[in-house]
Amino acid sequence: MRGSAQVQGKSKSTDKGRRSSSALRAPSPRERGEGRDIAIVGGGIIGICAAAFLAEAGLDVTLFDRTGICEETSSGNAAAFAFSDVLPLAHKGMIRQLPKWLADPLGPLSIPPAYLPKLLPWLIRFWRAGAPGKYEASLTAQAGMMKLAEAEWMDLLDRSGTRPMLREDGSLELYEGEAEFRAALSGWAARERFGIGFRHVEGENLADLQPGLSPRFVKGTFVPGWKTVADPKLLGKAVWAYAQSKGARFEMARIDRVAADQDGATLTLADGTTRQAGHIVIAAGAWSHLLARQLGDRIPLETERGYNTTLPPSAFDVRRQLIFSGHGFVITPLETGLRVGGAVELGGIERPPNFNRSKALLRKAREFLPGLDPSGGREWMGFRPSLPDSVPVVGKAARSQSVIYAFGHGHLGLTQAAATGRLIREFVLGQTSSVDLAPFSPQRF
Fold first, then answer.
1. Once rounded to an integer, what is the mean pLDDT over residues 8-15?
2. What is d(CA 289, CA 302) in angstroms, rounded to the nearest whole number?
3. Which is nearest to 430 in space by CA: 123, 35, 31, 129?
4. The pLDDT of residue 155
């Protein structure tokens, strides 16, 4: 064991008095060399990237998940590296659209009436996050995270041999009228401040970027730097294979409890057995706040339930990701099919899926792309872990330096995963952080 050699090396340099004193007590995990043992809770894309970065540094990494590697929410997302998506959700027209959207039970945003009382505190925080000062802070934090995310993902793709899975076709956001287009201009101006490139298009230029669109779309915004991946599940599994090649291990298990002190941490599995580690990384997506609560941190995470249908690749010739922001969904061409999905249902983690929402999105897609073949689709629902200010939690638990939180990325888990992996490695190794971590603090709420 790597840690044993370190302990032996230390014992030769200690004086007799210290050896006598240490014999009176059990050595701490750090004294036993276990500080290099890392347990990661969560086999989604955040946990996978954390494992890759930590294993590259020579650390002893074990990843725990109840179902497998990239088998849950990270398997079915819209496949975007959305590095230009820096606007907090409260400022994407969401507050303005709320009354209209909530009036439609199958619209872009839905809240089951029975869940509303439980959700109300989160909604109040979400509304407050729209204050001008908080908006600017969130925007700046996300822009910094996105810059790091793009650089770290491009490097990780090269190191892991997964660069061929990257698609650099840009994205096309579509507007049904002049009013919708003008309402979006302030958001594009904010992006422009951070050097994000785009151009507005209409007429033949719009048709060239995506033939076969319904004439209801009069303008669009093309973002050339927007990237997607061939399939998010396949990418996640490929990055994990790379982490494994560096020594990372996987254990299929549900984690019921976590406990920690300054010397290390303990996981209790569903079967009652325990695992010790020098550090624990909690990256369990929509379930993460339940584990954080056991450690004394109450983090206001809510679950955005997202729906999609993946059609056969022949369903329509979609040239790049199409974004229908007024309707809250996207269409993404994948290696494995055409994915039609998005929207938000704030309904927690226990309610059964309402696949009528997937069907509603598919009906709209047929209207927007009149030649679309809707047959042969596969429906899916996943849980996006979201915080009211749209900024993830990346930082240490309040009561223990041994626990690191990495969750709450909302729609941007895939996009920000490599940056989060880099930041976690910096925490574990005691290195200077690549970004200002204050906006991402678990204690900010």
1. 35
2. 9
3. 35
4. 98
Instruction: Give, for 160, the enclosing helix (H) or strand (E).
Output: helix 132-160
- Is 241 exposed, middle or buried, given 0-12, 13-18 or 19+ CB atoms closer than 10 A? middle
383: Cβ contacts below 8 Å, ≥ 6 apart: 72, 73, 285, 286, 303, 304, 305, 306, 349
Mean pLDDT of the chain: 89
Strands laid side by side in the 274-277 sheet: 255-261, 264-269, 274-277
Number of domains in the chain: 1
Find out whether 295 and 268 touch, Cβ atoms under 8 Å. Answer: no
Inside any domain, residue 426: yes
Any domain includes 258:
yes
The three-class DSSP label of residue 238 is: helix
pLDDT category, 135, cuts 50, 70, 90? confident
| pTM reported for the whole predicted model | 0.89
Question: Model confidence over 353-395: pLDDT tens digits?
Answer: 999 999 999 999 999 999 999 999 999 999 999 999 999 999 9
Which is higher by pLDDT, 2 or 326? 326
Give domain status of residue 175, yes or no. no
Q: pLDDT above 70 covers what percent of the chain? A: 89
Which one, of 253, 242, 280, lies nearest residue 39 by Cα? 280
The domain in which residue 420 lies consists of 34-170+225-440
* Helices marked H in 210-355: 232-245, 288-294
Neighbours of 162 (CB within 10 A): 21
Residue with tokens 């090269």: 158
> Per DSSP, what are the bridge partners of residue 276?
266
